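Researcher: I'm preparing a figure for a lab meeting and need a structural model of a single chain. I don't have an experimental structure, so a prediction will have to do for now. The sequence is pasted below. Please return the structure as tokens so I can convert it later.
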Amino acid sequence: MKHRLICSLLAIYAASLPIFSQEALKSTEEEYYDFLSLQGLAERPTLGYRTLSDNEWILTEDAKTADENVWKNNSLGSKWTVYEPAQKIDNFFTRGIDQSIKVKAYGPEWYNSYNTAAPYGQNDGALWQGKGFNSSLTAGARLEAYGLEVTFKPQLSFSQNREFDYIKPNYPTVDENNNLTIYNEKADTYGYYGVQFIDAPQRFGDKAFWTYDWGDTEIRYSWHSVTAGVGTQAIWLGPARLNPIIHSNNAPSYPKLDVGLRKTAIYMPYFGWYLGDFEGRAWWGKLTESDYFDNDTNNDSNLIAGMAATYAFPGIFDGLSIGFNRIMLSKWNDISSYSLTRVFLPKMDGGYDAADQRFSFTFDYILPKAGFEVYLEWARNDFSPDMDYIIRYPFHTQAWTFGAEKAFNFSPKYGLKVLLELTYLENSADYDRLINWYTTFYSHSEITQGHTNRGQWLGAGIGTGGNSQYLGFEFFHPKGSVTLFAQRRNPDLDYTMYIDAKNDATNISNGIFNAEGNIRCNLDFGISTIYYFTQNIMLSGAFVFEDERNPLNKTESFGESDHRYNCSFSLGTKYSF
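Model: Understood. Here is the structure written out token by token.
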């Protein structure tokens, strides 16, 4: 009996040699694997729909010892096989599952930041990085057994949420008869300032607060490439690195159900010709408004229904993929078979439908021999289905993100990744000049909370109606990396173009013409570093200087603007098993 126990323990130890495994979105590990994939040293696990469970990176055999694998001596986290049957069952069903038991630990990871003058931060889940001290702690574990995948990885965060000056919210408190409306005092005090009522508070109350979020927690079952799951894992759609248009991990998580097909190779029946790779997913989730929107308890939740499909070409077009993403937001209390399935229907009802739709096309082309990648996501909000108008002005309600990445290796110990990403979310010119109502990309008259969950943007973290230009240089060395970046942003220019411009028309007679001078701009310059203090312990730190020009969207005279200077400091540590 004792001999069998020792043999079993030795077998488990031998089987538990680390293999590469699922990584969290925007994690240090994912960013490094992306650097390797640009050089053809790692296979990208997804095409267009990415969650933690789908994000299993695989290194090529050459990569494990290649000089270009600068971090090969650091622990990036591993998944261990703790049970492997001596003889696997071989039949139609069992060929589609991994007949073993594997485990993986996540973290713990502790992140802290301090903003001296204003909120700063994005793509951080439920964490709200307001003015003052902010902190989040994540840790978890994952179990895989015979097709079943169970992940528990919550996030606990704290925000000091100190006071700062911001633009007066655009929320009514009385109607035309001087009666109180359903919009509450919190919304009128802390809510959004834009052209429509959107659940995107500028400040979450006047007190410090804690947030518990289920984060990347999920139960899933997979057979071959077919998969179905229930949980709260964040979704990242498309190839963008900073500002995906339709969906990112910028907002808190929400409960969802998804079904679909993971990245899988397609072959011609009978002939066996390789036709490329395909990936498709559909999901349904429940979004929740924040405490800073309205007093109507009947509209606290919305249904999000989404679909994503991406195809990667074979042969001479290897490295090229195209994708399509679409989501529909509708009222939770009005769920029907139509609201659950309309995301698959070709009919476009525009603003006349009692739902809020957005879709995007994606283009991604990676050339590993050149260490280069270029990508594009082009999106549209609700729009008229009139084909004649689409032909005459296809830019109606559009938004886009364009980016390019380049990898360099200077020596066996040093590498560089350069990222350029441009994002444009401003309303099209026909709204600005021809259509006589206010709107913006992440809002809709039917779903008044806008494209948000619990008060934070579901898509691009820069928010609605603006633009961004980002340039970053990440230098890799054997013990970590150093990143330098510069970014210019215009926050919500739709507000300036519509509200300020309309107000300006009434002031011209008084010789006042300040709308153009009211344009806001943020200039960000930052440096961050990652250092592996030991093989398993990673330390991180960052400093960002932010020049907010005209932060309150108001100037006394054209050509002059106020400046608010924010310094953002962050420190973090992570243990990788």
